[in-house]
UniProtKB/TrEMBL annotation:
One example of a Gene Ontology biological process annotation: calcium ion homeostasis
Pfam family, one: EF-hand_7
Entry coiled-coil feature ranges: 6-33
Name this polypeptide is given: EF-hand domain-containing protein
This protein's record includes keyword Chaperone: no
InterPro entries: CIBP, EF-hand-dom_pair, EF_Hand_1_Ca_BS, EF_hand_dom
TM regions (residue ranges): none
GO MF annotation list: calcium ion binding; magnesium ion binding
């Protein structure tokens, strides 16, 4: 902790700024946050190469302690989705991508794509009954009865499953989620 962001050259900061949607001020905050999380692993190196930003990884147990993620019931699933290997540990580049997608200025369509991936627990390209149940359990902290979960899943499919195949495609999900005025403001992480 206490490391300065000056370990990145101006060229590296500009390159990362182009990859994310946020302004340089937000990028500096993300870099500082990653350095704090990486401190448990001996610290993010002071001089960071492009390869290092893509390979140095912080394990999920350290990410789980982040204040910015702590209250999100999907925090592990979010990290799994952004982690290329599915481990929920994140390289600096993956961490940066996560904060970019959850920024206020990220385009709505990109947010919808990632939301779909987060809710698609089994990764089959559809949100089926098991995915919906897992999502509702995350949201309710598993406090409902099995009958209540079944009712909620049935109602969601009744409302959103346009082709009646018992699961939601990306287009069906997008159609429903974009009707929600709360989606974009709530699909956000403040730093």
């Amino acid at each position: 902790m206490g490391n300065k962001v000056a370990a990145f050259t101006e060229e590296q900061l500009v390159e990362y700024q182009e990859q994310v949607v946020e302004y340089q001020e937000q990028l500096v905050k993300v870099v500082q946050l990653y350095r704090e999380v990486a401190a448990e692993q001996g610290g993010f190196p002071r001089v960071v190469t492009r390869d290092m930003a893509a390979s140095y990884s912080v394990p999920y147990q350290d990410l789980d302690a982040l204040t910015e993620l702590k209250e999100n019931p999907f925090r592990r699933r979010v990290c799994e989705v952004f982690s290329e290997d599915g481990s929920a540990g994140l390289t600096f580049n993956e961490f940066l991508e996560m904060f970019s997608v959850f920024s206020e200025s990220c385009p709505r369509d990109i947010k919808v794509q990632y939301a779909f991936k987060i809710y698609d627990f089994d990764g089959d390209g559809f949100i089926g009954p098991n995915d919906l149940e897992a999502s509702v359990k995350h949201l309710t902290h598993e406090l409902l009865s099995n009958d209540e979960y079944e009712t909620i899943v049935a109602k969601v499919l009744e409302e959103a499953d346009v082709d009646c195949d018992g699961r939601l495609s990306q287009n069906e999900f997008k159609h429903v989620i974009l009707k929600s005025p709360d989606f974009v403001p709530n699909f956000h992480i403040r730093i």
